[in-house]
Design brief:
Elements: H1 2-27, H2 33-38, H3 41-45, H4 54-70, H5 72-80, H6 83-93, H7 99-113, H8 117-125, H9 128-135, H10 141-155, H11 159-167, H12 170-178, H13 183-197, H14 201-209, H15 212-217, H16 225-239, H17 243-251, H18 257-260, H19 267-281, H20 285-293, H21 296-306, H22 313-324, H23 327-335, H24 338-348, H25 352-366, H26 370-378, H27 382-390, H28 396-410, H29 416-419, H30 422-425, H31 428-441, H32 446-454, H33 457-463, H34 471-480, H35 485-490, H36 495-505
Helix pairs in contact: 1-4, 4-5, 4-7, 6-7, 7-10, 9-10, 10-13, 12-13, 13-16, 16-19, 19-22, 21-22, 21-24, 22-23, 22-25, 24-25, 25-28, 27-28, 28-31, 31-34
Length: 511
């Protein structure tokens, strides 16, 4: 009789394990998720996550993780059905001998929290953050990694959730994880710190106060490509907030090693390194000059010549931020052939948001002085900007940036030969600025006046229909005043008919 009882219990345990394994296999394929949900899989798994057999309990938690990972609807149902308190309680009660369960339960919390701030908040409310932070103190690196990853999925949503992670004491433990020998643990810890720091200067300062910068910078020379990507992202999220944090990164020695990474074989390492430079140079002229002196500007320009697509975007914006700080830095961009690379990016890149960023940077270079504006003009960029501003296919943002850049450059440009083509194709709001430059410059340049007549510029000006008393009409009048009245009349519309009419009425003298 005793043998039969034991056999029945053993068979029941074996059936439970077989069921969980089968469902685990089914849940690993996304096409099965809806069917499992309709069959009420969560109701069947609920008693199994409290099973007395640890292996069954862990396997059931693994299924929950797969289900939540693939479906936000199932993740929400798990929260509604109070699965979280049981999981978190089980994580806290298991000792070190069942580290596998803690890793699996952390996976479930991660799978739930990643979908939305509301689901992440549910994990926080149930005490999940505190339990995950305790797991960061485990000896097993895989438990630490799973816990750090779950904390990352909570912190990434917003500043409030990140603050919950910080308040639970996660930051010093995450920094400690950066010092562990396991590369996957380092990657996840760097990613989590990055997502904590990105929200506010105060959160970034917390990471700095716990020594994150020093530990991250040490990874620059690490051969692991994914780790270097995460490292640069984390440093960027710290440095973007303020000049003081950016200065601290430089003080801690992120350069020149960071500049050297722009020649890394991995494209994303190079991109993330250029993101870091973009975030640092935007703060002050002094920081821009420091990075220029380290060779950062030349390295980014070189990278723009070799990169394509989204890889170019941070570098494009970096040039604009450097140039925006002042005349000297903008001229440094020009002398370093930055304008040439921006011209190539504008021609080669099909994506409108990349073109818009390129146009913005060109505008930042050309807005300072006539020398800067003329450099843009002689690079034959004005017709390109004009074409993009008038192209119906261009996005609204691209059109707006082209118009703004054109206006700022035209107001400084003194190269009339580059301005003349714009007379023939510009819309009225751009044409007004073109005419304004001619009205200011023609009175002082006799050779330019002659060229203006022979090139057809004066004739085009007479054809422009401007409102009487408008600014544009004032510019036209000022241009006409630069020429003899008979020449202006000669190129005015209808003057040939007047001459023909006079010819018809003319009576030659007879001898």
């Amino acid at each position: 009789m005793n043998r039969e009882i034991v056999k029945s219990f053993h068979q029941y345990q074996k059936s439970r394990m077989q069921f969980v394994r089968t469902v685990t296999d089914l849940a690993s394929r996304p096409q099965n998720i809806d069917i499992l949900q309709k069959l009420g899989v969560l109701a069947l798994l609920r008693p199994l996550i409290l099973d007395v057999v640890p292996n069954i309990q862990q396997a059931a938690a693994q299924v929950l993780g797969h289900l939540a990972d693939h479906s936000d609807a199932l993740a929400e149902e798990m929260v509604r059905e109070d699965f979280l308190p049981h999981l978190i309680q089980s994580m806290a009660s298991h000792n070190i001998s069942n580290r596998f369960y803690k890793k699996t339960a952390a996976f479930v919390l991660r799978a739930i929290a990643k979908h939305s701030p509301e689901l992440a908040q549910a994990v926080v409310t149930c005490g999940g953050v505190n339990t995950l932070v305790v797991c960061l103190e485990e000896i097993d690196p895989w438990v630490k990694e799973a816990a750090a990853w779950a904390l990352d999925c909570i912190a990434r949503h917003n500043a409030s959730l990140s603050q919950s992670v910080v308040d639970a004491g996660a930051v010093p433990l995450l920094v400690q994880c950066l010092l562990e020998p396991e590369i996957p643990l380092k990657r996840v810890a760097a990613s989590t710190l990055s997502d904590i720091c990105k929200h506010t200067p105060e959160l970034a300062q917390t990471a700095v106060d716990n020594g994150a910068i020093t530990c991250l910078i040490k990874m620059i020379r690490n051969p692991d490509v994914k780790l270097k990507r995460q490292m640069f992202t984390a440093l960027s999220q710290i440095g973007k907030h303020s000049a003081s944090l950016a200065e601290l990164l430089i003080w801690e020695g992120v350069f020149p090693a960071g500049v050297a990474c722009l020649r890394d074989p991995d494209d994303h390492v190079k991109k993330n390194a250029s993101v870091l430079m973009r975030e640092l140079v935007k703060h002050t002229p002094e920081l821009s000059q420091v990075i220029v002196d380290y060779g950062g500007l030349a390295a980014v320009i070189d990278f723009l010549g070799r990169g394509r697509g989204h890889l170019r975007l941070p570098g494009i914006m970096m040039l604009g931020y450097v140039a925006a700080h002042g005349e000297q830095l903008a001229m440094t961009v020009i002398y370093s052939e930055g304008l040439l690379q921006l011209s190539k990016c504008l021609s080669e890149e099909p994506e409108h948001h990349i073109k818009a960023a390129t146009v913005w940077s060109i505008g930042q270079i050309g807005l300072h002085t006539p020398e800067h504006a003329n450099a843009v003009a002689t690079a034959d960029l004005l017709p390109k900007l004009l074409e993009l501003s008038m192209d119906a296919i261009s996005s609204e943002d691209l059109q707006a940036k082209c118009k703004k850049a054109l206006k700022s450059i035209l107001q400084k440009c003194t190269n009339l030969s580059c301005l003349e083509p714009l007379l023939f194709d510009s819309s009225n709001n751009i044409l007004q600025h073109v005419l304004g430059q001619f009205s200011k410059l023609l009175p002082h340049e006799s050779k330019a006046r002659r060229r203006f007549v022979t090139s057809g510029g004066l004739k085009k000006v007479q054809e422009i229909q401007a409102e009487p008393g408008s600014v544009m009409q004032e510019h036209i009048d000022a241009i006409n005043d630069c020429f003899p009245e008979e020449i202006v009349r000669y190129y005015s519309p209808g003057y040939s008919e007047v001459l023909l009419e006079r010819l018809d009425k003319y009576q030659p003298v007879k001898y």
